[in-house]
Write a structure and sequence with these properties.
The chain is α+β, with helices and mostly antiparallel strands. It has one domain (3-68). Helix content is 12%, strand content 27%. It is built from two helices and five strands. A hairpin with a 4-residue loop joins strand 2 (19-23) and strand 3.
Amino acid sequence: MALHMLGKDPNSDNGQSPTIYWDDETDHYVLQGWKLEDSAQLAGLDLPENETVIVFPRRMMPIFPEVKGSGPVD
């Protein structure tokens, strides 16, 4: 898997997460974010054992190439 960082949250402390990556082998995005730890929200999810949930701010959506209007990652 060859990950390419597309961008970090400009509002995060010290350049930490969340971060958006693109995997050029699978053509998938990989998202790094904060753990969802709210028990009420987690209880409302149908979360398989092999999956996890992160919190990801809406303000980061423009980092995705398709949202920027530049099409898929090359």
